[in-house]
Every structure is written in C-alpha cells, then in structure tokens.
Amino acid sequence: MVCDYLHEEALSGEEKVLARYLRPGLLIIDGMRMKQLPNHSGEYLFEIIMRRHEVRSTMMTTNRPLEDWGKLTGDFPSASAILDRFLQSAEIMKITGRSYRLKNAEKCSKGTTAATGSAAEKD
C-alpha cells in the first residue's frame, strides 16, 4: 500500500491511490512490516486510517508490539495518531504460539508433506 502511494506520488496520482484504499468496505492490511517503512509512510498510512475512521472497517495484522510503531513508521506523531484511532474502538486479538509456517516446515523436513491446494485437489 505504501509503495503504491510512493510510486503514484512521484507520478502525481496520489488522490487516485488514496481512493483505491478508501473505497472498500473492509480494508485488510496484512503483515504490518517487519522493517522500517520508507520516508513519509506514516503520513500516508495516517491519511488512509484517518479518512476511514468511523466510516469504513479496517483490519491490520502485525507481529510488532504497539510501542515499536513509531520506529516502524519513522514518524512518532503519525504512529501515535494511527494507534489512537485504531484503539478507540478496536478489538485486539493476541495470538500466541508457534508460527504455522514453521510447523509446516518441520513436517516437511521430517519426510511428511503438508497438503497444498493444488496437490490436495489432484488426489
């Protein structure tokens, strides 16, 4: 999403990209970054969250603690404002346990293969 924004900003199509993320009834931002986001990302993400706030649903997944969001976005005020809007009426689901990806990798390394959609359909 942020990469779309940065690319279109360079081409002066910022409003077009913004409309793409404001339109859906439910916007899912999956896997909020492990690495720090590019410059101005916090501002762009804040703009989307702010305009969707109390109008449309937004779901975000992350494995980063809330206190890391300022570093993640590179913009502490934007991160604080994003979290303020999210946490006002959010339902936080904390999932604990091992990664399902690691579990599947362990199964494969032990000689058993995990079924995938295309292989399972062929059987």
UniProtKB/TrEMBL annotation:
It comes from the Bacteria. One of its GO terms (molecular function) is ATP binding. Residues 16-107 form the IstB-like ATP-binding domain. This is Transposase/IS protein. It comes from Rubripirellula reticaptiva.
